[in-house]
Amino acid sequence: MQLSEELSRAFVAMGRHINRGEGAISRPDYLVLARLAARDCTRSRDLAAAEGLDQSTMSRRIASLLERGLVERSVDPSDGRAYTLALTEAGHEAVRTERARRVRSVTDALAGWDAVDRAELARLLGRLTDTLEAQS
């Protein structure tokens, strides 16, 4: 099997592994919540651009997060026609809980690996991530 096929298979399997389980937040919701946690406050159009999504798709996602009480919307002080988004306390807690759940999931999956193999995987994945981010 070629490297690109093996990587694709690994990423799909990891996504399935991480996204299963009690209380899991969907990957798309988690990505939006994590971006809001990192920026604390932003506009929907900025989130859509950052995630490479159509504005209408992001609007539906935001509406769901608002309805669930994970995100709040406020009038943008610099432009009264626009809104900014921020995590609620429940949203911050959801990000903390989901991040810990995802870390535990990967840690459990690698429990049978020795320290040298885990370190090598971390090094190579870091290198791949750096390369992909530089090309984005």
Structural overview:
- The protein is mainly alpha-helical.
- The chain has one domain (3-135): Winged helix-like DNA-binding domain superfamily/Winged helix DNA-binding domain (Arc Repressor Mutant, subunit A), CATH 1.10.10.
- It contains 6 helices and 2 strands.
- It has helices at residues 3-19, 27-39, 44-51, 55-67, 89-109, 115-135; strands at residues 71-76, 79-87.
- Strands 1-2 form a two-stranded antiparallel sheet.
- The model has no long low-confidence stretch (mean pLDDT 90).
Write a brief caption for the model:
The protein is mostly helical and 136 residues long.
Keywords:
2 strands, 6 helices, mainly alpha, 136 residues, Arc Repressor Mutant, subunit A, globular
How would you summarize the topology of this molecule?
Blueprint: H1 3-19, H2 27-39, H3 44-51, H4 55-67, E1 71-76, E2 79-87, H5 89-109, H6 115-135
SS-based class: mainly alpha
Number of domains: 1
- Helical element count? 6
CATH superfamily, called what? Winged helix-like DNA-binding domain superfamily/Winged helix DNA-binding domain
Just name the CATH architecture. Answer: Orthogonal Bundle
According to DSSP, the number of beta strands is 2
